[in-house]
């Protein structure tokens, strides 16, 4: 057997970055800001993910998908670590990711988490992704998944999911 080839960590990062969110398949984990780091640790590809919130069931699927994608690309020694600190916030979502979310029919986060102040409800000013109206209301704190809340538009009467700010 020949010596182990040099690990192409840049390629590993591209492969990991292309893995999509199982709940919102237009978004990659890189768009979401869930992918924190890909590094070469003595020949092992070490991928670090931060769940969108602790207990989000999608993170296990994301880990499996990262492992599968890297394995399919020929990487052999792979480890996926989770880090909860610093905690993920919607601020980590890329602008491209927010645009894709809206095209997918999910209202993106309306403001930066750091700007959240006082008793103003988070539902304030959530824009309908279909008609753009701000006349929307939160129907349920939990939408199709626990990471999203469910809204309805009072202008076009369409229901939609809103990616929670947190
Ligand atoms: Zn609407």
Walk me through the structure.
It is a single chain. With 166 residues, the protein is an alpha/beta fold. The protein folds into 2 domains: 9-82, GMP Synthetase, Chain A, domain 3 (2-Layer Sandwich), CATH 3.30.300.130; 95-163, no CATH class. It has 4 helices and 7 strands, in the order ααββαβαββββ. The strands form 2 sheets. A 4-stranded mixed beta sheet has the order 4-7-6-5. Strands 1-2-3 form a 3-stranded mixed beta sheet. Residues 116-123 have low confidence and may be disordered. The structure holds zinc ion. Zinc ion (ZN) binds next to loops.
Ligands in the model, by name, code or SMILES, are: zinc ion
Structural classification: alpha/beta
Query: How many individual β-strands?
Result: 7
What is the CATH T-level topology of the largest domain?
A: GMP Synthetase, Chain A, domain 3
- Write down the secondary-structure element order: HHEEHEHEEEE
Give the terminus-to-terminus CA distance.
50 Å
The number of helices is 4
Mean of residue pLDDT values: 82
When the domains are counted, the total is 2
């Amino acid at each position: 057997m020949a010596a182990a080839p040099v690990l192409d960590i840049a390629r590993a990062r591209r492969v990991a970055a292309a893995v999509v969110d199982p709940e919102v398949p237009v978004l990659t984990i890189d768009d979401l800001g869930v992918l924190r780091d890909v590094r070469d640790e003595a020949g092992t590809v070490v991928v670090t993910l931060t769940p969108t919130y602790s207990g989000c069931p999608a993170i296990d699927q994301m880990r499996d998908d990262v492992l599968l994608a890297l394995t399919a690309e020929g990487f052999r020694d792979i480890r996926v670590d989770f880090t909860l600190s610093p905690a993920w916030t919607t601020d980590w979502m890329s602008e491209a990711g927010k645009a894709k979310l809206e095209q997918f029919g999910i209202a993106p986060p309306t403001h930066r988490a750091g700007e959240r102040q006082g008793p103003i409800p988070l539902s304030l000013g959530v824009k309908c992704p279909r008609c753009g109206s701000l006349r929307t209301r939160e129907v349920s704190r939990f939408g199709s998944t626990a990471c999203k809340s469910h809204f309805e538009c009072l202008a076009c009467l369409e229901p939609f999911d809103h990616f929670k700010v947190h």
